[in-house]
C-alpha cells in the first residue's frame, strides 16, 4: 500500500513539473518577443541602451508575469 502511495505521489510531481515547464516556456517566448520589439523601438527613439534595457525589462516582465498568471488560472 505504501509503495503505491509513493508511486502516485511521484507521478503527480512529474505531471505538475511538466505542466509548469510548458507554461514557463510560452511565457519566456512572449517575454523575448516583447523585449526585442521594445528594445528596437526604444533605441529607434534615440534613448540609450541602459535606459531601454531597464524600461523594456520592466514592461515586458510585467507582461510575462501576466501570462504566467493566466496559465495558472487556466490550469
Automatic annotation (TrEMBL):
<protein>
    <recommendedName>
        <fullName>Major pollen allergen Ole e 6-like</fullName>
    </recommendedName>
</protein>
<dbReference type="InterPro" id="IPR015333">
    <property type="entry name" value="Pollen_allergen_ole-e-6"/>
</dbReference>
<dbReference type="InterPro" id="IPR036466">
    <property type="entry name" value="Pollen_allergen_ole-e-6_sf"/>
</dbReference>
<feature type="signal peptide">
    <location>
        <begin position="1"/>
        <end position="23"/>
    </location>
</feature>
<dbReference type="Pfam" id="PF09253">
    <property type="entry name" value="Ole_e_6"/>
</dbReference>
<keyword id="KW-0732">Signal</keyword>
Amino acid at each position: 500500500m505504501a509503495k503505491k502511495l509513493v508511486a502516485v505521489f511521484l507521478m503527480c510531481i512529474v505531471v505538475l513539473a511538466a505542466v509548469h515547464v510548458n507554461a514557463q516556456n510560452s511565457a519566456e517566448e512572449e517575454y523575448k518577443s516583447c523585449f526585442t520589439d521594445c528594445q528596437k523601438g526604444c533605441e529607434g527613439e534615440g534613448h540609450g541602451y541602459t535606459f531601454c534595457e531597464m524600461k523594456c525589462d520592466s514592461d515586458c516582465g510585467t507582461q510575462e508575469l501576466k501570462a504566467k498568471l493566466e496559465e495558472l488560472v487556466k490550469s
